[in-house]
Amino acid sequence: MRWHSLVLSLLASSALADPPCRTVELRFAPGAADLQIAIWIEDVAGHFKNTAYITRLTGQFGLANRPGIALLKTNFRWPYGRREMVLPVWAHRRNVHYPKVLMGGACGNSPASKCLDKSPCGGDCEDSTIAYHSRTSSYEPFYCSPSGPSSIDAMSCASKGTFSKGAFADAPAYSLYPPRADLTSFTNYDSGDAKNFASLNDLVAVSAATPKKGAPLNPPVSWSAASLPDGDYVAWIELSQESDFNAQHNHPNKADSVIEWDFEGHPFLGQPSVVYKVPFQIGASSYSNSTSSYAGYGSWDGSSGTMTLPDGTITVGIDGTGAGRLLQVNDGVDVYRFKVVVGGCGDTDGGAPTDGGLPLCMPAGPPDPVTEFTLKPTATALDVSFRTPTVGIPSNRFAVRYREGEAPITDDNFASALAAPDPEPGPAGSILASRISGLMPSTAYTVAVRGISSCSQGSHVVSQLVATPAQQFVTLHGCFIATAAFGSDLAVAVQGLRQFRDRTLLDNPLGQLFVGTYYAFSPSAAAAIAPNKRLRATTRWLIAPLIRFSGD
Asked: Do both 203 and 62 map to the same domain?
C-alpha cells in the first residue's frame, strides 16, 4: 500500500473520533553552515502570531542574552557577548521581554551588589572583557575557551572550561531574547538568577539544531495550523551568519577592555541578517506559494527591528553569502528559496500529496514510539539509531533530544531537553540515524527520541543513559614543544610537564585559557623545532625553569 493511501485509510477510520488537522510546511535549503534562523507567522496586518522554528544556539543556548557586551569578538563556541544583532527583525516583531543578563555570579551585578566595588570581586563582573571572571564562574557545559576548537576534534572544545553564566540586570533593562536553557548544575560561584534561566526560556520546544548546508531541509519545518482560523497570513524567515563580509558591510568590534586579552577571537560583524517572506492562505483547500527574492535586511547591531528594503548593499547571486544564505531550489513544481505549502482538509482528494510531499491533512492522534533505540558513544559524540513504527498514525519527523547528566527525559520534559540534529525520514520500519557532536569526554548524557505527527502530537518518549569514554589524546594532545625538544613524549621532563598541566593548569580558568592558547600555536612551533638540533637545545634551556617548577 502506498504511503498516502495508508494515510487516507487512517484518516477515514478516525473521522468519527478526532477531526484531521492541517499542516503548514516551510521549505528551504541553507546555503551556508552555522546559520542562525528564525521562522515566524504574522497576519496580513503585521500582527505576530507564532514562532514556528528557531535554531538552538539562539533558542536554547542564549546566544543573544548572555554575559558580555554585544560587540566582543568571536571564535568557535565563544562564551561571551550578547549577540543582539543575530535575528533583530524577528526579535523586535515578537517583542517578548526577558531579564537582561550581564556578567556576574554570586556577587550579582546590580547597584546594590558588591560587583561595583573592587572587593571582593568587582572586576569579575566587568562586561567589557573576556578575562578575569574566575570568582563568578563555574563549569561550562557548552561554550568553549576563547582559543577555539580542539586540535583533535574540530567539532568540540579543546578542554572543559569555567565561565561566568551571568546575572540579571536591574529593571528597566530587558532583552528581546531568552536566556540559556541548558544549565542543570550550579556552584556557589553562580548567581541565583542563573537557576531561573531555563524556566524563563519559552522557545526550547521550537528550537532545532542548525541544519546542514547544501540541500533542502529534510524533513521540512512543519507547523500545525490548528491554532489559526482560516484567512491570509505571511510566513517570514530571517537568517544570520557571522563573518559574512562584503565591501559595504564590515562593521567594527570593540577591543577587549583588558588589552592583553584582545588577541583572542576575531571580528564577525559583516552583512546583517537577511529576511524572506511568503504570503499564504489557510482554508479548506491546499495551497502553496514561494519566493526567490529577499525582502530586506536587519540592523547590523540589533538596535532596532526595522527591516531595510534591498538597496544594493547585500550580496546577491552568490551561494552561501548575503541573500545566498538560502539556495535556489527546483522541486519540479516551483523554483524558490523559501516556500510555504498548506494542507487543505476539504479537498476532494482527501488531502493527497501536495507538491511532491506527503499528505498535509492528517488524522489527529499521537504516533507509536520507536523501537530498537541504540546509542554508540565516542569521546565527543553519540551515534543514535532507532527503528520507525510500521503501524499507527505516521510520524512527520523524529526529534532527538539530550541533556548532560543522569536526570531522565520523559514525555513531560522532553521539549525542555537540548535539540540534536533530526534524522532524515525514511519508510515505515526503517532504521534512522543521527549524531550528537560537540560533547565532553567522560561525561554522562541522557538521550531520548520521539516521533511527532503532522498535527504536532508526540509519541511516548524512548530514552537511555550513556557515558562518553575518556579522550585518548596520545601525542597530539601532549606537550608539543617539550616533546620536540626532548625527542620523545615519554621523556621524564615531558611527563612532569604533562602532570603539571593536568593537575595545576587545567584546574583553574586562567590555566585553562593558557593551555588553550598554547595548543593553538604550539604544533607549528614544534614542527620547526623538532628537526633542528640547535633549536631543540635552546628550547630545553628555555623551559628548564618551568620543568624545575613543575617538579616542586
From this structure: yes
Task: Tell me the pTM.
Answer: 0.80
Residues 69 and 127 in one domain: yes
How high is the pLDDT of residue 454?
76
Half-sphere exposure of 360 (CA within 13 A, CB side): 31
> What backbone torsions phi and psi does residue 330 show, to the nearest 5 degrees?
-115, 110
Contacts of 531 by beta carbon, 8 Å cutoff, 6+ apart = none
What's the confidence (pLDDT) of residue 442?
87
Q: Which residues pair with 403 in a beta bridge?
A: 446
Residue given cell 541565583 in the structure block: 192
- Say how many CA atoms lie within 13 Å of 409 toward its Cβ: 27
Please report which helix (H) or strand (E) contains residue 12, including its range.
Answer: helix 3-13
**Claim to verify: residue 444 and residue 510 sit in the same structural domain:** no
Task: Say if residue 101 is in the same domain as residue 227.
Answer: yes
Are residues 176 and 96 in contact, defined by beta-carbon separation less than 8 angstroms?
Answer: yes
Residues 458 and 480 in one domain: no
Stretches in the chain below the pLDDT threshold 50: 1-17, 347-354, 358, 473-477
Residue with cell 559524540: 381
- In DSSP terms, 238 is beta-bridged to 38, 275
Same domain, 289 and 233: yes
Here the cell at position 446 is 541522557
| Amino acid (one-letter) located at 414 | F
Last residue within a domain, chosen from 326, 342, 358:
342
- Cα–Cα separations (whole angstroms), residue 147 to 300, 474, 538: 25, 21, 27
SS3 assignment, position 252: coil
Q: What angle do CA 368, 369, 374 make, to 5 degrees?
A: 155
**What is the C-alpha separation between 271 and 274, in angstroms, rounded?**
8
The per-residue pLDDT for 510 is 62
The answer to whether residue 81 sits within a structural domain is yes
CA–CA distance, 80 with 133 (Å, rounded to integer): 11
Same domain, 102 and 211: yes
**Runs of H (alpha helix) within 361-440:** none
Count: domains in the chain: 3
Question: In the chain, what is the straight-line distance between the N-terminal and C-terminal CA atoms, in Å?
Answer: 76
Instruction: Examine residue 349 and state whether it is found in any structural domain, yes or no.
Output: no
Host domain of residue 142: 21-342
Which of residues 297, 322, 342 is at a domain's end?
342
The CB-side HSE value for 467 (13 A sphere, CA atoms) comes to 7
The phi and psi torsions of 446 (rounded to 5 degrees) equal: -105, 130
